[in-house]
Amino acid sequence: EAVVWRGPKKNVIINQFLSDVVWGQLDYLIIDTPPGTSDEHISVVENIKSISPDGAVLVTTPQGVSLSNVRREVSFCKKILLPVIGIIENMRGFVCPHCS
What pTM did the predictor assign? Predict the structure, then answer.
């Protein structure tokens, strides 16, 4: 069953998860977020800022909507001074059999 939470509730959960877990020494921390830029992204960045992350790796697909989202994500990262250290293009060779 789907969990439906509004922005403030999601932000509380994100904050609690990132601050209450004892992560120990990490080489990498991968955080999968929804496409685009939203309150979730701001909450994540505010919580990880203290550990001075090396940067963000963004994931996109070749579709126009996804490329538009990743452009906004790059802009978001620039505004918050989080370096983009890579962009992964997923499903590059995939051609949808239903929509070509």
Answer: 0.76
